[in-house]
Amino acid sequence: MALPQTPDSNPSDYIDDEDFIALEIPDDWAGERLDKALAHFLNDYSRNRLQTWASQGAVLVDGKVVKARQILRGGEQIRVFPQEMPEQHAFLPENIPLQCIYEDDTVLVFNKAAGMVMHPAAGNWTGTVLNGLLFHYPELQQLPRAGIVHRLDKDTSGLFVVARTGLAQTALVRLLQDHAVERRYLAWVWGDTPLRGTINAAVGRDQRDRLKMAVINANSNHPSAKSAVTHYKRLALGSFNNTKVSLLECRLETGRTHQIRVHLESLGFPLLGDPVYRKKIPAVAKDLSLQRQALHAFALEFVHPKTHTLMRWFAPIPSDLLTLNSSVRLSDTVLPNAQSAKLAGDD
Fold first, then answer.
1. What letters, b where the CB count within 10 A reaches 16 and e where it falls short, cover 5-22?
2. Which range (15-19, 40-44, 289-293) has the least confidence?
């Protein structure tokens, strides 16, 4: 099959002086879709990207805008005008407010609001915590992921740490790998849970829904399964419209994607307000006025990578979860704070 002709006859250089890509469709591609041909001949770009450009009117076939699924007859003259993609601006500084609760020359600790995405990815190329970090702390441009060493889900509020130096980032990553960073969460779940327990179950990508994670059988040879351990302790029991609700304190040994949400749902105790992990949720959940999963990273503890002293931080409960706490009528509730907080599993 002959390669399409380009202005300088170099198959790897399609861009001419007018910033468009020119090619001629070979006759033996008659009957194929336009997007398939573009993906084949312009393999520096993904098929999805080329389809997007076609939908934006940036692909001309014989001088006319056509749809990506256009069937070719062979011999067409194609011009593609490359468009900037969102990811090209993903790692740019943005003046986004961040609540820093601790700062020194080595580490930063922040209290993240629910609704904030940690770093750019498909669907959220801008407006992330990482973009804000690059604005407020320009030196973080020199570090991988702007110094972020662990993540919180978009709709989970609470504490996370950022390294300010390469040495600190390496040290914090090692502490996480050694399970030496204490991360504690408050979780409001449906059901009457045991008083305490440990969930030791591998977590991996759900093979039926690639947007979700799932508990994986240890003997399944699942390619993405990773060990995961969550300790929990019930702090209070209440109800919402006559349906039991438990407030748990959870402590992570590992930090897998959606770990607490997946683990608790696997026991039949999904988080209140969780839009994704919703097995066995009661009918009354539709009456709940909560716009996100009821999960808050309230405590963070680790040995400082430079001073080697034990450091501990606490984040107050956000107003939406305080309102939730009142509406579910929890009995004998003592919300953890800097004075009273204890590790899940402690006596």
1. ebeeeeeeebeeeeebbb
2. 15-19
What are the structure tokens assigned to 52, written together? 């997007």
Q: Which residues, other chains included, contact 218 with Cβ-Cβ below 8 Å and sequence gap of 6+?
A: 202, 225
| Arithmetic mean of pLDDT, 231-256 | 95
Q: Which amino acid is at 335?
A: L
Residues 6+ apart with CB under 8 A from 272: 188, 189, 190, 240, 245, 285, 288, 290, 293, 294, 324, 328
For residue 269, what are the contacts with CB-CB under 8 A and spacing of at least 6?
Answer: 189, 190, 191, 193, 246
pTM (2 decimals)? 0.75
pLDDT score at 1: 33
- Decide: 22 and 14 in contact? Cβ < 8 Å: yes
Spatial separation of the C-alpha atoms in residues 322 and 330, rounded to whole Å: 11
Cα 327 to Cα 83: distance, rounded to the nearest angstrom:
50
Tell me: the pLDDT tens digits for 171-223? 999 999 899 999 999 999 999 999 999 999 999 888 788 778 999 886 777 76
Is the pLDDT at 75 greater than 50? The verdict is yes
CB atoms within 10 A of CB 59: 26
The neighbouring-strand residues paired with 71 are 33
Q: Is 62 a catalytic residue?
A: no
H or E stretch including 246? strand 243-252
Catalytic residue among 28, 35, 104, 153: 153
List beta partners, residue 303: 310
The closest of 218, 201, 314 to 258, measured between CA atoms, is 201
Say what the alpha-carbon torsion angle 113, 118, 120, 126 is, to the nearest 10 degrees: 20
